[in-house]
Amino acid sequence: MKYIIQADRLIDGSGSEPLKNGAVVTEEGKIIKVCTSDQLTQSDKSNAEILTVPGGSILPGFIEMHSHIHCSSEADAYEHITTESNETFLLRGTQAVRAALSSGVTTMRDLGSRNEVVFPLRQGISDGIIPGPRLLVAGTPITTTGGHCNMFGTEANTSAEVVKAIRQQFKLGADCIKIMSTGGGFTPGTNVRAPQYTADVLKNAVHDADRLGLKVAAHCHATEGVKNCVEAGIHNLIHCSWLSSDPSEQYDYDPDVADQIAEKGIYVDPTLALSHLNSLRGRPIKPDSGAMRDPEKRFEILRDMWDRGVRFVTGMDSGMTNAHFDDFAYIPEVMVNDMNISPLEAITCSTKTSAECLGMEDQIGTIEKEKSADIVVVNGDPSTDISTLHDVNTILSQGNLVKSENNLLI
Ligand SMILES: [Zn+2]
User: Fold this and answer.
1) Hey, what CATH topology would domain 62-358 get?
2) What is the pLDDT of residue 294?
3) 383 CA distance to ligand 1 middle (Å)
4) Cα 137 versus chain centre, distance
5) Is the entire prediction scored with pTM above 0.90?
6) How far does the centroid of ligand 1 lie from the alpha carbon of residue 363, in Å?
7) In terms of CATH architecture, what is 2-60+366-408?
């Protein structure tokens, strides 16, 4: 199928200024031309379905970097994950990927699931059995015995055990590896202020994952855990909360380590929207949750990291309480409103930078010829009002029309 999408402006994801009256031509799942509407030729238009969105803006499909598609995102998310069956997880996952795609997410990374349920879900999407974004999966996360998310199924303590666990996920078909470098708020009794692994164990993990062509994303709340991950050369830091080992001090931010994160090209997914959604939808912050007790200070730290050149990607931690699968637009919105970066910068994090973090920048993340036809059109102008990303008019996912004229087609 051939489509022409045209709107008042085109934001290509690279950070460039919007192109006025932009148009994109797609055919067989690929972008074949990017231009202005008046540069469209008769041959461009022949056999094409033309979708015009007056007042709208064309963008690359959004990239959600951190999901748990089998989790419920309800208040009882922990209860659900510890008691439900694999069959229920599959039903939840099916609903989750549909919701994400419906909000304009065309690529999604699942960063840890229980048992092996994400693999048939990924297969089901690529076989066209269920609608969903391009799905990349970590399989089960790797954690210490009794550690954060141990109920998901993979416990490993020593370097040898961690390396074996990586190879097991590789064998199952994982696209990346998730490791829990500190405790986490989701798992009662784990310590968010202390590391679970030494830098040496993490180094061995990265070394073996590199050999297999897999990138490693590491959950880290405690500053000691962040430092271990940076020393080990972890590819992608998740949360990066800089929590002090002393519970009477909330944060222990180290700007020198932030400089190293920038220098080593480590991407950071600060799961920014989660606490915003918790306050929006009502949820008390637990003292041991690792969540933001002092949001102003947290945003100050993140802004300092940004100024030092750290690259941010857009993960939701969807599936956790209050982080619904169609909530993506809150991430760039919080980046603009609370981190004080520009709307175009937040859009670039949501598209190009996240694609680079996945190592998929040759296929997705910007609107360019030859790339996958993953396109979103929103009503309004997100370069001046980021909240318009919530108002999706049209979605094209790998060349397939998912939403048109505000109507969902899946
Ligand atoms: Zn998570």
Assistant:
1) TIM Barrel (3.20.20)
2) 82
3) 29
4) 11
5) yes
6) 25
7) Roll (2.30)
